[in-house]
Amino acid sequence: MTSPRIRTIAAVLGAALLSTATACGGSGDSGGSVTLTYRLWDDQQKAGYQKVMAAFEKADPGVRVKIELLPYDQYWTKMTADAVAGTAPDVFWMQTSQFPEFVTKGILADLGGLKLDTSKYNANVVQSYTYKGKLYGVPKDFGIVGLLYNEDLFKKAGVTMPDKLTWAPDGSGTLLETARKLTVDDNGKHPDQPGFDAGKVKQYGFASWNHYQTQWMNWVSSNGGKLVDKPFGKYAFNDAASVQALQFGVDLVNKYHVAPPAAQTNPPSDKINEMFKQGRVAMFPANNALLPFVAPGANFKIGIAPMPAGPAGRVVNINGLSEAVYARSPHKEAAMKLARFLSGPEAQKIMADGGYVFPALDGLSQGYLDYWKQKGLDVSPFLEESRGATFNLPVTTGFTAFENKLNQTFNDMYLGKLTPQQAADQAVHDGDALVK
Amino acid sequence: MTSSADHLPGRADPADGAERDGIERDGIERDRAVVTAPAAGTPEEPADGRTAARGAGHRPRRRLWHTNWYAYLFVAPSLFGVFAFLLLPLLIVLGLSLFHWELLSSPSFAGLANYRRLGGDGETWHSVWVTVLFVLLSIPAQTVLGLLLALLLNQRVKGVAFYRALFVVPWMATPIVMGLVWTWIFDPRDGALNKLLGVAGVSGPDWLTDPSWALPSVALVNVWQYSGYTMLFFLAGLQGIPQELYDAAATDGASPVQRFFQITLPLLNPTTFFVTVTNLVGAFQIFDTVYAMTDGGPSGSTEVLNFRIYETAFRQFDFGYASTLAALLFLLILAVTLAQVRFFAKRTTYDLS
C-alpha cells in the first residue's frame, strides 16, 4: 500500500538534480561519429524504426542513433523532467495535446532550416505543429477515426451497411435506423418495438460513450460546432450547435437505447472495447491506430466504414504525430540531419509498408492499404476520410490538466445527471481556467 | 515504526530491556515456525525493528560507538537509503512547497503563497474529507477482520497452513491489476456481484458510477486486499502470548470470552499498535486502487488526497503546489500517528513473561 507515485516524484526530482550535474560535463559535436538519442513510446513501431534508423546510418555513416522506448504513461513525465534538466533526447515524438506546452516553453527547435515543402504533407498535421507561422515538428503520421463494425452481426440480422451513414439531432438519418435494427433485447425485440426492455439488451447496435476523440468531438464538429475558438485559444463547445450534438450522443444511450448504459462504459472503464470484441456491440468508432490491437484477436469479420455525416457533413478527428528536435541538443546539426531523413519518402515508406501508420507525407498510403488488405481488412475508408473535412483535438495549453475533469463532467452528462448544456458550460469554464 | 518505539515506556531499565529482547527473539523463532513460505519474511520486520531501536537506546553513547562501530558499518547501507530516499526527498518536497514551479518554466520563490492558496482551496479540503472517509471505511473493518481471521487460523486444524497462505494472496497481487479485476466484478450489468445479488432478488447499484457507492466500493477492495496481510501480524502476535497465562486463567475459571478480552486483546496491543499505524498510514496514502478503478470519479467522490497530488504534479505539472499538498498529507499522517503512539503508550506492555 505504499504510494509509488510519491516515490516517483522523489525519483524524478533526484534524477533531475543528478542529470543537471552530469549534463555540465557533456560533449559537443567534436568531429568523429555522433550518437543521437531518438525516443518513442510505441513498442510495435519501434520495430519499424529500427529499419528506418539502419537506413539512416547507411546514408549518413557519421551518425549513430540509439532508439529509446518509454511506455506512454511514463513518456510525458520523463520528457518533462528531462526538459527541465536540459537532458531531453535529441529527436523525439511529439503529439498535438502536448505540443502547446512544449513549444511555448522553448523546448522545441524551429525546423525552418530544413526548408520542408509543407504542401506535400497532410495539411492537418502540418497545421498542428505550426506555431506563430513556424514549423516545430516534422510531420510523421496521422491517425484518423473511422467506424469499425461487426460484419457477422450485420449478416445475421440481414442488414447491409448503408452507402452513407447520416445523423441529425432530431434522430433522423441512417445511423440510428441501422443501429435500431442491430439492437436486440432478450426477447428479440428492437428499441422501436412495443415491449422492448431497455434493461435486458442482448446486443447493442452502436457504441456511444464518453470518449472525446472518437465520439462527442466528432458529433460536435459534424454539426457545425467548434471545440476551440482558435488554435491556442479558449474552448467554445457550449454553443447551440455543440450542445445539440452532445444531446444526440447522450440520446443514443438514454433515449434511443441503441448503446450500452454509461454506468458500464464511462471511463476509466474500457468495457466498450471488450463488448465490441465479444460481439455484443455492432458498430464502434475507433482510431485506425487501434487496428493492430483489435484485429488479431477478433473472432468475427471486421468491416470498416466512414464515420456518419451530420448536418454539417462528415467531419472526423485526425490526430497527427511529429518528430521534434530538442532546442538545446548538443548535437543539433546531426539531429537536424536525422529530422530531414525522417521527413523524406524513404523513412516514411518503411513505416507505411509495415502497416504501422498512415504516413504524413502524401503518396505513400498505398503501402499501408496493401499491408492490411493482406490481413483481410479494407482500410481505405480511413484514407477517404482523411481527404475530406477533418478536425484536430483542441490545440491549447493546459489540456493535459483539463482532461480528467472534462471526463468526469461528461461522465455525469452521459449518465443523465447533467444536461448537455450544463455539462458543456461547466467543462468550458473549467478548461478556460487552465488555458495560459 | 522504529522511531515511535523509542517513546514507549519502560525502556530505561537495561536489565529489563535485555530480558525483553530475549523474549522478542523467542517470539521470532515461533513466528518462523508458524508462518508459511510466501510470507516468511514479513513478520520479522516489526520485531527486528523494535529490538534494534531498543538496543541502541540503553547504552551510553560513547561506549556504543567504540564497541559497536561495526554495527554502524552494517546499517550504513540502509542508513544511506533512509537519507537518500526518505529524508532528502522529504526536505526537497518541503523546500519545493515554498516555490512556484510549473515544470518547464523556472521556479520562483513564493514564500508561503502556496500555503495561503491551500487555505482557500475547497477542492483540496474535499479531498482531505474523502481521504478521512476512506480511512474510516477501511481501517476498522480491515483490523477486525484481520483479527478474526487470525483467531480462526490459530487453531490446529488440518490444512491451516494452506488457508493462511490463501488469505495473504490478495496482498501480493498488484493493486492496478486487482483494481481492473474488481471493475469487472463491480460491472452493474455483467459483473459477478450484481449477478449474485440478482439471484437473491436484489438489484445492485451502479457500484463505481454512483457517487455514493464508489468510495465504499474502493474501500471494500482495500479491505479485501489487506485483511489477510493484517491477519499475518495478529497471528504472529497470538503465537507470542504464553500458553501458561491461558492455563492459569482456565484454572481460575475464566470463560473463553473473558480470556479473549482479559488476556488475548491486551497482550496483542503491540501488534495492534503496529498494524493500525502501518495500515492507517497506508490508507491515507491510497492511490493505485483509486487510479485503476475510478480515476477520482464519479463527480470527484473518490478523489483522495494522494490522487489530487498526482493530478497536480503529473497532469497539471504544478510541482510547487503539489509539494504543498504532499506536505499537508505528511502532517496529517504525522498527527494521526502521534495520536496513536500516545494512545497505545499507556496501554501496551511488551513484557509477556
Automatic annotation (TrEMBL), chain A:
Gene3D superfamilies, per database record: Periplasmic binding protein-like II
Pfam families the record matches: SBP_bac_1
Compartment(s): Cell envelope
Protein name, per record: Sugar ABC transporter substrate-binding protein
Record's GO cellular component terms: cell envelope
Signal sequence bounds: 1-23
Keywords carried by this UniProt record: Signal, Transport
Domain of life (superkingdom): Bacteria
Organism: Actinomadura montaniterrae
Recorded family membership: Belongs to the bacterial solute-binding protein 1 family.
